[in-house]
Amino acid sequence: xxxxxxxxxxxxxxxxxxxxxxxxxxxxxxxxxxxxxxxxxxxxxxxxxxxxxxxxxxxxxxxxxxxxxxxxxxxxxxxxxxxxxxxxxxxxxxxx
Length: 96
Fold this sequence. Notes:
The protein is mainly beta. The protein has one helix at residues 34-38, and strands at 11-17, 21-27, 45-50, 53-58, 62-68, 72-73, 88-91. A four-stranded antiparallel β-sheet has the order 2-1-3-6, with no helix packed on it. It has a three-stranded antiparallel β-sheet with strand order 5-4-7, with no helix packed on it. Mean pLDDT is 90; it is low at 1-5.
């Protein structure tokens, strides 16, 4: 049984506008408040480069959750949301 969160790398890019426009930030660690850290309360597109992530609608990992797998998300409907509200992001780490 091996438990090593460092073994998997996680990387995603968030964009303040649809279709990868506007301010871009690359994230590799959990973020409990996107607003406090990046001054963003809405994210309109994602490019998940490595690993899977959970996007939470509210800060501190609360509210609706959306699983983001490695792929491109050009607008919030692509990850199943009705709007672009985003509060926090957490890496999905395999526990096995």
